[in-house]
Design goal:
The chain is an alpha/beta fold. The chain has 11 helices and 12 strands.
Length: 324
């Protein structure tokens, strides 16, 4: 392994990103620790798989850099155990090995490794591979795997950026009504289709109505957020509801579509009737008030969503018009 820090350094690492180095060779482990610290990463070192698991459970790193050939517990078994534990299941793993056999690479990927580097390697190559794996992990955390829409991290960043810039904006918080009954009646796969349908509809309507600068995010479950110009918020909300109500029945079986409800048994075995899924939208905007933090705008939009859900039947929206 050769060293070449020019062009890497702190620039390559995100603040606070931590790496757990696992190698039974003290010289290699120490050398990796020095190189990674110089590149701006927080580094801990373990000399066998068991110690690595203990350290990972104590404080889960962003990435594990593990040698394949170790006594007692090799890199394959370590990766397998990391993936089986909910505390470490999402950690990124790069395997290091002196063997470049295809079978070894396939086994590494099959147990959940994100990348596989053959020794000897140059430091610039190693750092580039680490940056790539960590970048992909950040992107995955920042978006919903079901809808592909930005997730909570990106939603918060988007709203906070507009707050700090003094922009005029609105936050629409959309939530599906009677979705649980649909999910219970048709199953999770059909339920996922409703979520994906809603995501596409929100994207299409928001961009058509408020322009390409409109942001659409997936909070999780059946909750979504739209961020747009304040003067377009009510048009977006109205058109979302209009199109949603016009298309959602296509996701029902013919019999249920005709009668306008599904039947689901509750915990006591009693059959209850639930109407077609609808959407409730709460709107918070800068038209009459300002926000010092993104969470304030989200809280107001959430409050208005709860209000319209309780006050009205069917799809509806409500906008906050208070000045304090």
């Amino acid at each position: 392994m050769t060293s070449e820090h020019e062009g890497d350094g702190i620039f390559g690492a995100q603040a606070g990103e931590s790496i757990l180095v696992v190698d039974d060779d003290p010289f290699i482990a120490r050398l990796l620790e020095i190189e990674l610290r110089a590149a701006g990463y927080e580094v801990r070192v373990a000399h066998d798989g068991g110690e690595a698991l203990d350290l990972a459970h104590e404080h889960c790193p962003e990435l594990v850099l593990a040698d394949v050939m170790m006594p007692n517990m090799d890199g394959f078994e370590l990766t397998r155990r990391l993936r089986m534990d909910s505390r470490t299941a999402s950690v990124s793993v790069i395997m290091l090995t002196a063997r470049g056999l295809s079978a070894d690479k396939l086994e590494g990927f099959s147990v959940g490794a994100d990348d596989y580097i053959v020794k000897p390697f140059d430091t610039p190559e190693l750092l580039a591979r680490i940056r790539g794996v960590l970048r992909r992990a950040r992107e995955m955390r920042a978006q919903s795997p079901l809808t592909g829409l930005p997730g909570n991290v990106r939603i918060a960043d988007e709203i906070e950026q507009r707050v700090q810039s003094g922009a005029r904006f609105a936050v629409l918080y959309a939530d599906l009504d009677h979705f649980k009954a649909y999910n219970d009646h048709y199953g999770f796969m059909r339920g996922d289709q409703v979520i994906q349908f809603t995501a596409r509809l929100l994207q299409d309507v928001s961009i058509e109505t408020a322009g390409p600068g409109t942001f659409v995010g997936h909070v999780g479950g059946d909750d979504f957020v739209v961020v747009c110009d304040e003067n377009q918020a009510e048009n977006v909300a109205e058109r979302v509801i209009e199109r949603f109500d016009g298309q959602v029945r296509d996701l029902y079986d013919e019999e249920d579509r005709q009668r306008g409800f599904v039947e689901v048994a509750n915990r006591r075995g009693e059959v209850q009737q639930f109407p077609v899924v609808t959407v409730s939208i709460g709107v918070a905007s800068t038209e009459r008030r300002s926000y010092a933090h993104y969470a304030e705008a989200v809280a107001v939009a959430t409050e208005m969503k709860a209000f319209t859900k309780k006050a009205r039947e069917g799809s509806s929206w409500a906008v906050d018009r208070r000045t304090t």
